[in-house]
Every structure is written in C-alpha cells, then in structure tokens.
Specification:
Layout: H1 3-9, H2 32-45, E1 49-56, E2 58-59, E3 71-72, H3 78-96, E4 102-110, H4 118-129, E5 133-144, H5 151-159, E6 164-170, H6 174-179, H7 186-199, E7 203-210, H8 217-230, E8 234-239, H9 260-276, E9 280-283, E10 286-288, H10 293-300, E11 304-306, E12 309-311, E13 318-321, E14 326-328, E15 332-336, H11 340-348, E16 354-359, H12 362-377, E17 379-381, H13 384-390, H14 396-404, E18 408-411, E19 414-417, H15 425-430
C-alpha cells in the first residue's frame, strides 16, 4: 500500500454495518409504533424468513481494547435472570409477527456468550427455536473466548444446528495479550479449533487485530503463522479501532500504540502471508479458504453486510435481542438500551427495551443500497432516473480524487473499486454518505479508516 495514499486517506470514517450510521440516526423522529409496523411489513417482504442476533454482554474481565457493550462480572447468577428477559423480549416480537417465523440466521454475540453454562445456552436456544420453523439453509454462529469455551458448549450448540464459530484471538503474543488484558494460550485455541472441527462445525473463524498496543510486525507475523498452522476456514484481520471518547479504558493504551505506518506494514505483511497460504481476500478485513461459504457467496454476488458483519444470509428482517442489540427491518433501525438495569426493567414491564432508532428516508434507502453494493461487491450502478434523486448529494470532489488516485473507475452510471482501491473501501463509501456533511468536523466520532 502506497504510504502517500495511506496518509491522505487515513481519516475518521464509518465501517458501514448500517446506513445511515448510528451517529446520524434521528431518535427524536423515531416512533416504536412505526418500528413495530416495519417489522410486520418486513416479515412478509422477507417471505417469513428472519435473522436473530442475541447480545450476551457478560465478561468476567475487561479487555481494554474492546469497543463492544459489555457487563463485567464474575457473578453467574445473572445468567438465569438475563435469559428469562431475552425470552420475554422474543415473545414480544412473536406477538408482532402474524405467523411463525422461519429462522434463517442466528448469531450469539457479546461479551462472551460462553460466559453462560452449556445448560443455560441449551435452555435459551430451545426456548427460541420451539416457536419458529428452522430454514433449510441456515447459518447459526457464535463468538467465543478460547479460554472460556468447553467441549460441552461446543457439543450443545452443534446439536442445535450451529455451524459457525468465531474465536477471538487478537494476537498470540503474551506481551500484547497482557497489554490488552486478554489472556489465552495457543493450546486453548488449538483445543477449541480442533474440537469444533471434529464436531462438524463447517466454518471456524479467527478474529485477529493489528495496531494493538505493544504489537510489532514480528508479533503479527508470528500470530499469522500460528493461525495458518491451525487452518481456520475464515479470518477477520482488522485494525484496532481506537475510540477513547467512547471507551475510556482505551485511553491508557495510547503511549503503546504503533504508528500509522507500522499499522499498514502489519496489515500488508499479514495479508501477504495469508494469501501465500491459500486464503483469498473476500472483503474489507476478511479472508477465507476457497471452499468456505463466505468466499462462495462473494463470488456468486450474494454476500451481505449488516450489524453482524459480513454474512452469507440475507433476510429483510433482523431482530436484535438483549441490551444494546440492534434490529433492522431495512426501512427502520431500532437499538435496545445499553443499561442492563434499564433493559431488565423495561422487559419486565412488558415494553420493548428500545432507546433509539431511525426510520429511513427515500434518499437513505437509495444510498444504503449503493453503499451495501460497494461493501459487498466492490461496485454499484444506477439508472439516469435514479441518479436524479441522489446525484446532487454525492461527494464529487472525493470521487474525482479517488479516480485520479486509481482507486475507482467511475462514470455517470457506474462505479467500480479497483484492486488497488479495495483497502480504501470505507473511504470510497464515504463519497456516497450524504449524512457525513451533517457531522461536526471538530468532533471525532469514528475510528480511522486504515
């Protein structure tokens, strides 16, 4: 990657798991009644197929680099209390849906989902699935900390049809692990990986992060080599998102963070090693072996992106359950409260625990489609009639710069991201983000794009 281009385009920008991005939602205009109607309408538009995201926020210790919404405790009596609330929230949505849904996609995120005992996870999944049909081709996945996942966890989830596991590695180096307060041994990862494969999980993903405190090019290279030895099907290799204005625990990491140039060398070296080992660059930060469904979906043009990241499944309705979880009906977004106490109280009162959301305008929907195409297909096109609706909102100055730097091929009806431009996909999408002009330029609200 050209250092001059890195310095030019390494700006603050969204990851585009949604459009509009959360800071530009208009919660003052959001109405829960309209959200419920959009859920009902999306259910039919989706052919009764739905996706479910369950946020299980508990962790026994805080990883200081983490940007997720978590609740730190070693008190496992929270398990039963929280699961009962999740099931009650699910039942509220079932009351909105006109008939039994077809569950196409299910993801357990966190936190650490395996904070919960395998017996409690069995109770949760059985309670959810007994009130819906299971789709013919499903993707059920969960995230785990390799030191906190047992064979019983894996066996229980596999028995319910889970076929994907995402293991948080970040870096194998003990010094880096100590700096971010996340400790797991190579043996822990080895056991979790091989146990999952032996039980029939057809996709094992590793999360690796570059740009962490006390990380070096050599630690990243060694982490990549160890990863290659374990041969996960997929790898998410992404840059550490430094957002101390959102996560105060990150502030103390600043003296130990690598420079932008070092970050890019870490990524370039890591990518070269992965590609030499047979992994293929799928999309932003993602690599997969040739037979993995993520790569197959990318080649077939069916890759999708939502709040769960890249996915092979695409439904018109994603319901988010649990504190801070986000739902998506394509025309509306809704996010649950980030307070555990408030979440439990609202659910107990029989109210959807939503604290903010956004109803998409006609222009939002147009830009959402094109940004999604760029993120998943590296290209998008439009008709002359459609261009009249959104053309004036495009950032033509940025598009001209991207074209001059050979990062895109751009004409009046089409844009295509070049191979050289793929690492800059977030910057390219920003040219289609009409709402970015609304931001306060003095206030940083996103992580760096590179």
């Amino acid at each position: 990657m050209n250092l001059q281009l890195i310095q030019k385009y390494n700006t603050s920008g969204p990851r585009y798991t949604s459009y509009p991005t959360v800071p530009f939602w208009e919660p003052e205009k959001f109405k829960i009644k309209e959200w419920k109607q959009s859920v009902h309408d999306a259910f039919w538009a989706s052919g009764k197929e739905i996706s479910l995201y369950l946020h299980l926020p508990f962790c026994e210790s805080l990883c200081t680099y983490c940007g997720c919404t978590t609740y730190i405790t070693k008190n496992h009596s929270w398990e039963e209390i929280y699961l009962k609330a999740l099931i009650k929230e699910w039942e509220m949505y079932l009351d909105i849906l006109p008939t039994r849904p077809i569950l196409k996609e299910l993801h357990l995120g966190g936190g650490t989902p395996t904070f919960f005992s395998h017996k409690n996870l069995e109770f949760l999944i059985s309670s959810l699935t007994k009130k819906c049909e299971i789709g013919k081709e499903t993707e059920f996945g969960f995230e785990c900390h390799p030191s906190h996942v047992t064979f019983n966890h894996l066996q229980t989830l596999r028995s319910f049809g889970f076929n994907r596991i995402s293991i948080g590695i970040q870096d194998f180096d003990p010094t880096v692990q100590s700096a971010i307060n996340r400790k797991q041994s190579y043996e822990d990862v080895f056991i979790a990986t091989n146990s999952a494969k032996n039980l029939g999980f057809n996709s094992v993903n590793f999360d690796l992060v570059y740009g962490l405190p006390k990380q070096s090019i050599s630690t990243v290279q060694e982490t990549i080599r160890k990863t290659i030895d374990l041969k996960p099907n997929r790898i998410a290799f992404y840059g550490y998102a430094h957002v101390p204005w959102l996560k105060k625990s990150q502030k103390k990491l600043e003296p130990f963070l690598p420079s932008t140039e070092e970050r890019m060398e870490m990524y370039t070296n890591g990518k070269e090693l992965l590609c030499e080992a047979g992994y293929i660059d799928v999309g932003m930060d993602h690599f997969a072996l040739p037979e993995d469904s993520l790569l197959v979906s990318s080649k077939e043009g069916t890759l999708h992106r939502n709040f769960m990241g890249y996915t092979t499944q695409s439904t018109a309705l994603l319901l988010g359950l649990g504190m801070s979880a986000i739902g998506d009906s394509w025309t509306s977004f809704a996010q649950n409260t980030k307070s555990l106490k408030e979440y439990l109280q609202l659910v107990d009162e029989g109210s959807l625990p939503i604290f903010r959301g956004h109803h998409l305008t006609h222009e939002d929907l147009i830009f959402r489609k094109h940004i999604l195409n760029l993120m998943c297909k590296y290209e998008t096109e439009w008709t002359e009639s459609e261009f009249h609706h959104f053309g004036l909102s495009l950032n033509f100055e940025l598009l001209d710069e991207l074209k001059n730097d050979e990062l895109i091929i751009f004409d009046e009806h089409h844009i295509e991201i070049t191979e050289k431009g793929k690492p800059f996909v977030r910057n390219i999408c920003m040219a289609f983000d009409a709402r970015l002009s609304e931001r306060n330029s003095e206030k940083e609200i996103f992580s760096k794009t590179l």
